[in-house]
Description:
Elements: E1 12-14, E2 20-24, H1 35-42, E3 47-50, H2 68-80, E4 88-93, H3 95-106, E5 110-116, H4 124-134, E6 143-145, H5 156-161, E7 167-169, H6 170-186, E8 194-199, H7 207-217, E9 222-227, H8 240-256
Parallel strand pairs: 2-3, 2-4, 4-5, 5-8, 8-9
Antiparallel strand pairs: 1-3, 6-7
Helix pairs in contact: 3-6, 4-6
Amino acid sequence: MTKLPRASKSGFDLQGGFGQVLLLHGYTGTPYDLRLVADFLHARDFHVVAPLLKGHGTHPRELYNVVLKDWLWQCREALGKFDIERPIVVGGLSMGALLSIMLAASNPTIKAVLLFSPALSLGWLHDLVIASARFGILSQKTSIKKLSGGSDIMDKEARAKSPCYREMPVAGLLQFDRLRRMALLNLASIACPIFMAFGKHDAAIDAKASHRIAIASSKEPVFSKFYDHSKHVVTLDYDREELLVDMWQFLNQWLEIKLW
């Protein structure tokens, strides 16, 4: 199995001369959750950028005052630095997948989208927390502990290494849900092929509902797969090697052969 990289909370910029990829992490996570994907693509001469989104990598309370436009601004700024003469791919995990949807829906220069555990449906527990906060039952300046204790990963080594927050600030969760609802409206506007990967044992989102929504909404070719031995952070879990192979086959089909 592919060796896990050294843990880090920092964003990264891996230079390459082929295509360009922007990778976006999930809520309470860090770019580390996408490091294996980044290293795999960088080894094939892709230029890969993965920013640390505002409010992450420090302390959960930093997410109390972050708003959706902060994340979107970061993503658009990073995307704006790419060379439009070279193919561009965007991808993300969970909330990062939603940000990728927003970017792809409004940017025709993007040639493919990589959605890892896209959080299009959060499940009843998150919906309850969000509703409680909206009605003032639950303070937005508080956090809820994650049931998993950390990242939702089956692989114990990967779960221990992932430097995520162990709790979810409610204020940021409301911004996350706002992004989710916007992404639902923008899915049909994506004009390029989509790769989707879900963990079969995902306990962080409603993966089956998210999958149904994406398939029903997309007008472009979609490769989608559930990985049997993975949870939410499918990019680091037991099926990570299989996922990388599937992703590479997808990119070769829709980029190298048809566009490059």
